[in-house]
UniProtKB/TrEMBL annotation:
Protein's name in the database: DUF3225 domain-containing protein
InterPro entries the UniProt entry points to: AtzH-like (IPR024507), NTF2-like_dom_sf (IPR032710)
A Pfam family this chain is assigned to: AtzH-like
NCBIfam families documented for this protein: HpxZ
Length: 128
């Protein structure tokens, strides 16, 4: 891919808006927006800190049953990169108050006819 197709400003701005909309929904436990921003497909994958979720139904079930307290976090070292007009990667580290662990999150985003959606995500924790 030619470098002029990577991080085109308008496309990167769209992905940034989608990523930070997801982040706001995550910390406020806005399940409707979280659901909206994942691809509604059985091929969607989310590897969490303690669970492997295959398909949108498993992801929805996880969201409905996880605790809604203690979701606030601070992001660090966030990078977003777009490739062409329809694909991007978001990587970030996060910390939660009262925890020594460093969280890591990677999301693969694709622009579908319905808008930017997460098609794969991975969350892990490591000692800080």
């Amino acid at each position: 891919m030619k470098s002029e197709h990577i991080d085109r400003p308008a496309i990167l701005a769209e992905l940034n808006a989608a990523f930070y909309r997801y982040e706001q929904a995550l910390v406020s436990n806005d399940i409707a927006v979280l659901d909206e921003l994942f691809w509604h497909d059985a091929r969607t994958v989310r590897y969490g800190a303690g669970e492997n979720l295959y398909g949108i139904e498993a992801i929805r079930d996880f969201r409905l049953h996880r605790p809604s307290q203690g979701l606030d976090r601070t992001l660090e070292n966030t990078t977003l990169t777009t490739f062409g007009e329809d694909m991007g990667i978001a990587c970030t580290e996060f910390r939660r108050e009262g925890s020594t662990k460093i969280g890591r999150q990677t999301q693969t985003w694709v622009r579908l006819p319905c808008g930017w959606r997460i098609v794969a995500a991975h969350v892990s924790l490591m000692e800080g």
